[in-house]
Amino acid sequence: MEKLDTMMLADDLALSQDKILNGEQDFDADAVYKVIDNLGVLNNPIKDYFDMTEEQYYEAESDHKLTLIKLASKLSDLHDRILTNHVDGYVDKDVINLTYNHENPYEDDLYNPTIDYRVIVYSLKVIGAVQSIAAKDLEKVLSKDALLSVGLAAHALAHNA
Q1: How far is the C-alpha of 10 from the C-alpha of 22, rounded, in Å?
Q2: What is the pTM of this model?
Q3: CA–CA dist 120, 153 (Å, integer)
Q4: From CA 112, how far away is CA 108, in angstroms rounded?
Q5: CA 161 – CA 29 distance, rounded (Å)
Q6: Model confidence pLDDT, tens digit, residues 120-134
Q7: CA of 18: how far to CAs of 9, 40, 85, 98, 159, in Å?
Q8: What is the percentage of the chain residues whose pLDDT exceeds 70?
Q9: Which residues pair with 82 in a beta bridge?
Q10: Which residues are CB-contacts of 118 (< 8 A; sequence separation ≥ 6)?
Q11: Mean pLDDT, residues 78-96 taken together
Q12: How many CA atoms lie within 13 Å of 43's alpha carbon, on the beta-carbon side?
């Protein structure tokens, strides 16, 4: 059932994008957090990371895809995001490749919720696709920093939108 939850959430968020970004519909960050936690990729529940410093995360868990340069700052203040944007490989050969790119929803220090929304929806679609065909491999191939980025994007949307 969890596999379906990821895809269903991504689809629901995609359909609701305009209403959520226009403030006509509430954004359910807890639904995103639940999907993240159910993946079992991060060492802790996603909410535990928001008050963690960049240095604490860097030392304990980061896979070094995020640009962490303000090490004393809270992760919830981080402007860098990692978007999970593509999957390829051979499931029958246990070769799954995910590709990523950086996104910044705070260009010129102005928050752009559309970018964080895209990080959430697109990443969850790719993650859900892998989960539906190779769930056991997902934990090994998914970047912790990319999954953290989905949580940071949801947190920012919930508090800034």
Answers
A1: 18
A2: 0.93
A3: 7
A4: 10
A5: 11
A6: 999 999 999 999 888
A7: 15, 30, 21, 28, 18
A8: 96
A9: 102
A10: 83, 103
A11: 85
A12: 10
